[in-house]
Amino acid sequence: MIRTVLLTGSNGFLGSHIADALLRNDYKVRAMVRPTSDLTWLEQKPVSYVYASLNDPESLKKAVEGVDAVIHNAAVVSSDNKYHYYKHNTEGTRNLAEAVLDKAPDIERFVFVSSQAAGGPTENQDPRKEDVLPQPVTDYGHSKLLAENHLRKFKDLLPISIIRPPALYGPRDTAWLTFFKLISRGIMPLVGRRRELTLTHGQDAARQVLLQLEKKEAIGDIFHSAPFEPTTFEEFGRCIAKVLGVTPKVFVVEDILIKTVYPIIYPAFGIFKIKPPFRKDKVVDALVKRWTINGEKAHDLLGFEGRLPLMAGVGQTVEWYRWKGWLQSPRDRLKARGGSVTKSRQVENHKVQYDPSCDLCALAIDGEVKTVKHYEDDDFIIVDCLICREPMAVLKNHRAHFTDEEKDRLDQIFVNVLDKKYYTDYEQRRIPEHAHVHCRSHRHALPWQKRPE
């Protein structure tokens, strides 16, 4: 039985979500990090650390001793020096597999987090399946495919399972943050026209990694992580804009400019100390028309189902960015300018308190419903929370607390409307100035904590 899991790349975006998924399911996580690693996303979590490098075989042998499984998630995803891709992604993966054979030969699972880039772009109208001949177009993709090929040499010696995630997004991700910020300012830049891609939320990808760790059907096979249909860059941007409440102006950057001009101006970003939108080696990626993959195999063989389709995932991501102060909506900017002023407002036959900078006032009083609405009357509205997707009741009046009578009435509404066991959570974390309550299907728990049944 798997108890202790070595997780490489544990401190990054996807790795930290994998760590959360493992901890929620009672696994002991041994996080492989470097002395210089930023451990922000692992802080306060009950993980043990082991300091090792994929390019140091001796340190890897110490890292794998006594573990029951390995999830190899560490990778170089962007570099101006293509040699780094092959050194870390390809040779590093082989070094780790050899260390496992030497020190933990009876390991129960070795899950390798590869990439859609290892398979290459979509060749026709149908999203690429796992059995289509790989044709990577970048050094990153080639390095990941070579790593997969190295692992195939160990297929009779180690229980290997490979996952190929597509473009990922979600809380803690910084790769898409600039795109979100531009849209919040009313600008939607699009590279080329009608680019299609598969997008998967990082938490969904982490859940699939967990399945490939546990399911025997995953051994010796490759699985795409694509629980939802492909989308376009424009549709992705429209979802972001809808959640933020903006109407962005679309700017299309034509392919010829990306292909010929971007490589020329790229050095200027460094000269002026500006972070470039993407590294020069990603130009080939940007010019591909369709980066789409088919995820039916994981559904059929492993029973994997995603929980965060595009609108839900984008809503959660936007709210998380705002909570961390990474992103501002128009209402956030209004509040920062001193526009957070509670006013009396006439709503139908009575007056209520209203704050034009408050998201919950916009929801309850202006009717900005962006998720499923379960119930509404003169006093309350119940919708699914953008962040946690649990039902949330919001007072139609801008004040900080419910009265005891309102709480009693809400309890009765929850019984009649939700018709399920629920836990009321009156701790108002993000918007304490406007009364609201989550009606959770389980007691509140941190992302890495086991949730009660």
Could you walk me through the main structural features you see in this protein, from its secondary elements to its overall organization?
The strands form six sheets. A seven-stranded parallel β-sheet has the order 3-2-1-4-5-6-11, sandwiched between helices. It folds into two domains: about 325 residues, NAD(P)-binding Rossmann-like Domain (Rossmann fold); about 110 residues, HIT-like (HIT family, subunit A), CATH 3.30.428. Helix 3 runs parallel beside helix 5 and helix 8 packs across helix 12. It is built from 15 helices and 21 strands. Helices cover about 35% and strands about 20% of the residues. The two termini are about 20 Å apart. With about 450 residues, it is of the alpha/beta class.
Short note summarizing the structure:
The chain has helices at 13-24, 57-64, 82-103, 116-119, 139-152, 177-184, 202-214, 233-244, 255-271, 283-287, 296-302, 310-324, 330-336, 359-364, 404-418, and strands at 4-8, 28-33, 48-51, 69-72, 109-113, 160-164, 167-169, 187-191, 196-197, 199-201, 222-224, 231-232, 249-253, 290-291, 343-347, 350-354, 373-376, 380-384, 391-395, 423-425, 436-440. It is globular, with a radius of gyration of 24 Å. The strands form six sheets. Strands 3-2-1-4-5-6-11 form a seven-stranded parallel sheet, with helices on both faces. It has a five-stranded antiparallel sheet with strand order 17-18-19-21-20. Strands 12-9-14 form a three-stranded mixed sheet.
